[in-house]
Amino acid sequence: MPDSPPDFVRGDPHQQADALLRSLGAAELDHPGGTLLAHLHRVRELLADWGARPELQLAGLCHACYGTDGFPTALLPAARQDSRDRLAAVIGPAAEQLVHDYAGCERGPTYRELTGEPPCIHDRFTGRPYQPTPHQQRDFAELTAANELDLARHSQDFRARHGAALLTLFTRWRPLLSEPAWATAELLLG
After folding, report:
1. pLDDT by residue (tens digit) across 11-33?
2. Is 35 helix (H, G, I), strand (E, B) or coil?
3. Cβ-contact 141, 125 below 8 angstroms
């Protein structure tokens, strides 16, 4: 994989992010429903269909850049500030922070405690939990739903193995999800 991205033409951040993802090899990585790049675009499109703001859509497009608890292949090393700066230069600091928070989540305890009192996200990068703001909770839930529902839509095996658990999770998270996200979850998993 190339070490540095191509020179980006200023303009549409989605096109810039796509160019960066391609330069990092996302179009060559297998993923349920095709390639990682195809999945990333579908997640962004799903968030757009749900009316998500631009920063959340960009985070959806780049959500796997640092790997995740469920997809360990990292396109960029999350521990390096130059990687974070590189992604932020393309999608903006707010979207990059969403990507970092999503990638850093330890899913098991976070999924259980996101709607707890107090809510908690467990950071697998630092090993420490933290209390998200209500805004962070909603963003995390919405991005998780878009990611998992895209997988459920494009993989019968994934839906058969994880559909019931996801419906239980999203039912618990329903207060955090937008109406369109919840409707998609009910349609695909209910």
Report:
1. 799 999 999 999 999 999 999 88
2. strand
3. no
CA nearest neighbour of 138 among 176, 99, 181 = 176
Q: What is the pLDDT of residue 21?
A: 97
The whole model's pTM is what?
0.92
22: its two tokens: 């391609």
Gap between the Cα atoms of 26 and 23, Å rounded: 8
Question: pLDDT confidence of 10, banded at 50, 70, 90?
Answer: low
Instruction: Say if CB 143 and CB 170 are below 8 A apart.
Output: no
**For the residues of 67-104, what is the DSSP string, one character each?**
--SS----SS-TT-HHHHHHHHHHH-HHHHHHHHHHHH
pLDDT at 6 over 70: no
In contact, 107 and 67? CB cutoff 8 Å: no
The DSSP secondary-structure symbol of 4 reads: S
Q: Which backbone phi and psi does 32 adopt, to 5 degrees?
A: -50, 130
Taking the alpha carbons at both ends of the chain, their separation in whole angstroms is 40
Between 2 and 163, residue with greater pLDDT: 163
DSSP 160-185: HHHHHHHHHHHHHTGGGS-HHHHHHH
Contact 37, 73 (CB under 8 A): no
